[in-house]
Structures are given as C-alpha cells and as structure tokens.
C-alpha cells in the first residue's frame, strides 16, 4: 500500500504534537498550579447577552467608558456591585430628550448613579441604609438614592425625582455582581432637582465683588462642583442680603 507511509508519518506527527502540548500543559501547570480563574465579568456582555431589552444602557456604559472601569474593578474579586439597569423602553419614555441637555460629565454621573458599590441580593436590600450611596456619589454631588422594601421582596427606589420598583433580575452570581432591570431611568436629584437661584452677575457692583472675593479665597482648594456651586450661591445670597440692607 502506497498510502501507509504518509499515514504513519501523519500519525507520528500527531502523536509528537500531542505529547508536546501535553508537556507544555504540564509545564504551565507546574508554573501556575492555581485553579483556573473564573471567566472575567463583562457588564456590557451581560446586558447584551442575558437580556434583550437593555441595549441602550449597555451602549451608554460603553460610550461613557464606565464599562471599562467597572469590568476592571470586577477583576478584583473583593469589589462587588449592583447594577440597576433601565430598559430600552425606559429610555424611550423619558420626556423630550431629557438626556440631550446633559453634558458628557453629567452623562457619566447618570450612568454611575445606576451602579451601587456593593452586591445586593433582593433580600439584602432590607439592610440598605438610606440614603444609599452610588458610584456617582462624591466630588460632583451626593448622588444618593433611597430604597424601601416590603415583606414580599418588592424593592422600590427613589431619587427624589424618580420612583420605581426593581423589576426582573438580569444577572446574579450571588456574591460579586447583581444586575436588576428598572422600568424607569433614575433621574438624579443632583441633576434634575430644583436648581439653586443663579448667583449675581460677577461684573457689576458690590455684589459681584463679594462673589468674586469668595471665589478667590476658596479657589486654591480642590472643590467638588456641588460645593463650589453652594459657595458661590451662598456668596451671592449674602451679597443680595447686604444689597437689600443698603
Ligand atoms: C465585553 O463585551 C462586549 C460586548 O459583547 C465586547 O464588545 C467587549 O469587547 C467585551 N470586553 C472585554 C474586555 O472582553
Ligand atoms: C413601591 O411603590 C409602589 C408603587 O408606587 C407602591 O404601591 C408600594 O407600596 C411601594 N412599596 C414599598 C415597599 O415602598
Ligand atoms: C431619603 O432618606 C433619608 C433618610 O431617611 C431622608 O432624610 C431623605 O429625605 C430621603 N430622600 C428621599 C428623596 O426620599
Ligand atoms: C448569562 O449569559 C451567559 C452567556 O449567554 C450564560 O452562560 C449565563 O448562564 C447567563 N447567566 C445568567 C445568570 O443568566
């Protein structure tokens, strides 16, 4: 048979390749005996693959690059998160382009506002202490929300602007990440609450000088925008009071 020698050669080659990869595997095992790490969590993949109606939020996570941040924090198994993901309909139902007026920074905060910096199973929400901090809580405002629960594991969230109930569970690995569905976009009070009255124009008269002075003395310190605003507003208010006394 003419075909035998090549076949044999092929079989030999296959055997060699197999044993080589076996040795390779054995070697890498010897170097890293730790058990295989679990598949890294990917929040956009979860929203796109474990749900059919969270595409908009997945896109926002991606556009704001919050996905990169959360995924990399999830690589550290000690970090846990709960994501409250609004449905596509929730975004459609937002009144007249509510998000169009947001700056890019505000959009980032809005996305971060829907992420809680710890894992909550549904029963664990009972232990949440109001106001609950979100990933957006910090430099640019308080960005907290309130949670209320009842005996049948219904969980309501309230931002001071938006009230809604946690609907379906999208994902839950029971220790590090839970993703729940919301029928509404949570509008943060920090962005959609009543705005403080505008500060007096900085150029005219003693009011402006007072505001400018307040700005100068506090300008050296690194201040969050919220604190900055309240300072400026406070100065404006004081100037207004002083003005009305004159
Ligand atoms: C996460 O999933 C998205 C969507 O499937 C994909 O585009 C992206 O590359 C993934 N990221 C990583 C780090 O694997
Ligand atoms: C949650 O909200 C619904 C609708 O507004 C209300 O009927 C229910 O009582 C609320 N439950 C809790 C626990 O706050
Ligand atoms: C949230 O809860 C805190 C503490 O109970 C309360 O002071 C605050 O008014 C609540 N805010 C909203 C918007 O319900
Ligand atoms: C999420 O989707 C992945 C991939 O389709 C699947 O393996 C996994 O079981 C799903 N997890 C949940 C909690 O639905």
From TrEMBL:
SUPFAM superfamilies: FAS1 domain (SSF82153)
Annotated GO biological process: plant-type secondary cell wall biogenesis
Compositionally biased region (Pro residues): 194-204
Keyword terms of this UniProt record: Cell membrane, Glycoprotein, GPI-anchor, Lipoprotein, Membrane, Signal
Region ranges (Disordered): 191-218
InterPro entries in the cross-refs: FAS1_dom_sf (IPR036378), FAS1_domain (IPR000782), FLA_A (IPR045003)
Protein's job: May be a cell surface adhesion protein.
Family according to the record: Belongs to the fasciclin-like AGP family.
Name of the protein this chain belongs to: Fasciclin-like arabinogalactan protein 9
Organism: Canna indica
């Amino acid at each position: 048979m003419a075909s035998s020698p090549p076949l044999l050669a092929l079989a030999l080659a296959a055997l060699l390749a197999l044993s080589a990869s076996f040795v390779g595997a054995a070697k890498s095992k010897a170097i890293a005996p730790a058990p295989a790490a679990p598949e890294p969590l990917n929040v956009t993949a979860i929203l796109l693959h474990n749900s059919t109606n969270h595409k908009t939020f997945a896109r926002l996570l991606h556009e704001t690059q919050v996905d990169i941040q959360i995924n990399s924090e999830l690589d550290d198994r000690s970090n846990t998160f709960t994501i409250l993901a609004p449905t596509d309909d929730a975004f459609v139902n937002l009144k007249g382009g509510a998000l169009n007026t947001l700056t890019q920074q505000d959009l980032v905060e809005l996305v971060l506002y829907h992420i809680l910096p710890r894992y909550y199973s549904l029963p664990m929400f009972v232990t949440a202490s109001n106001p609950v901090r979100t990933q957006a809580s910090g430099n640019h405002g308080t960005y907290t929300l309130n949670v209320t629960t009842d005996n049948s594991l219904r969980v309501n969230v309230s931002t001071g602007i938006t009230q809604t109930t946690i609907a379906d569970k999208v994902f839950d690995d029971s220790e590090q990440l839970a993703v729940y569905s919301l029928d509404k976009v949570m509008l943060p009070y920090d962005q959609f609450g009543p705005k403080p009255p505008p500060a007096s124009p900085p150029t005219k008269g003693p009011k402006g000088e007072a505001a400018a002075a307040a700005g100068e003395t506090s300008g050296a310190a690194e201040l969050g925008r919220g604190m900055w605003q309240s300072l400026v507003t406070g100065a404006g208010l004081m100037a207004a009071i002083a003005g009305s006394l004159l």
